[in-house]
Design brief:
The chain is mainly α. It contains seven helices and two strands; from the N terminus they run H-H-E-E-H-H-H-H-H. Helices cover about 70% and strands about 0% of the residues. It has a two-stranded antiparallel sheet with strand order 1-2. The termini are close together.
Length: about 220
């Protein structure tokens, strides 16, 4: 039996904690990917090809480009997480983590794709049109979920987020790149979305507990 007092003494901040971490990592990797795309000389001219493999199979060691990318992305994520930690109880951070983080996770693949396509002079193509139809639907469901209008069970919610991430991985492109266009983006976007959903659910549960004196039984 879990009462309001027991829940509020327990790990009620864990969903928000993981949401903040995964939001920071997801945005950190996406932002560094865009920097690699638009400002390759920031990295001392070492980044010359976005199609370098994560592992250089011919030498059996990490490619230089992968080391630079992952180091920069993790540093960026650390900075974002530090900002969250310093401003943890502010209204702005609360709004970001509860009301915006999920929408950012859903939109990030499209933003990266648009920047990559624009830089490379590519056309939209059928894949992007499919994504352009799916994304507004995903955002509409996320808005209804965030406002408590609809509820997804863990299995259904996780499946929908996985399908969204796989669709945009199919649109973005390839297995063997170090940047957000590779499997890194799909995995991080999915994990960030799941963490956001858990945070929203935990907040709704806490509000329910605070609104009643009855114990909640499991």
């Amino acid at each position: 039996m879990i009462t309001r007092e027991l829940y509020e003494r327990g790990p009620r901040h864990l969903p928000r904690f993981f949401n903040a971490i995964l939001f920071s990592v997801n945005v950190g990797f996406a932002s560094i990917s865009l920097l690699f795309l638009f400002f390759p000389r920031l990295f001392s001219g070492l980044i010359t090809d976005f199609s370098n493999k994560l592992f250089d199979l011919s030498r059996g060691q990490f490619a230089t480009e992968a080391i630079i990318y992952w180091t920069a992305a993790l540093l960026s994520a650390s900075v974002l997480w530090t900002i969250h930690a310093l401003l943890w109880r502010t209204t702005a951070i609360s709004f970001l983590l509860h009301s915006a983080a999920g929408f950012i996770a859903l939109c990030t693949p499209m933003a990266v794709w648009l920047c990559v396509s624009t830089e490379n002079g590519g056309h939209m193509g059928t894949r992007f049109l499919v994504g352009a139809i799916e994304l507004p639907m995903a955002l509409a469901f996320a808005f209804l979920f965030q406002n408590g209008k609809i509820h997804f069970g863990p299995l259904i919610g996780t499946t929908l987020l996985a399908a969204h991430s796989l669709l945009w991985f199919w649109i973005l492109g390839t297995m063997w790149v170090t940047t957000y266009e590779g499997p890194t983006g799909a995995v991080l976007g999915f994990m960030a979305g799941v963490a956001w959903g858990a945070h929203v659910e935990a907040d709704a549960f806490l509000r329910y507990l605070r609104g009643t004196d009855l114990p909640i039984c499991f």
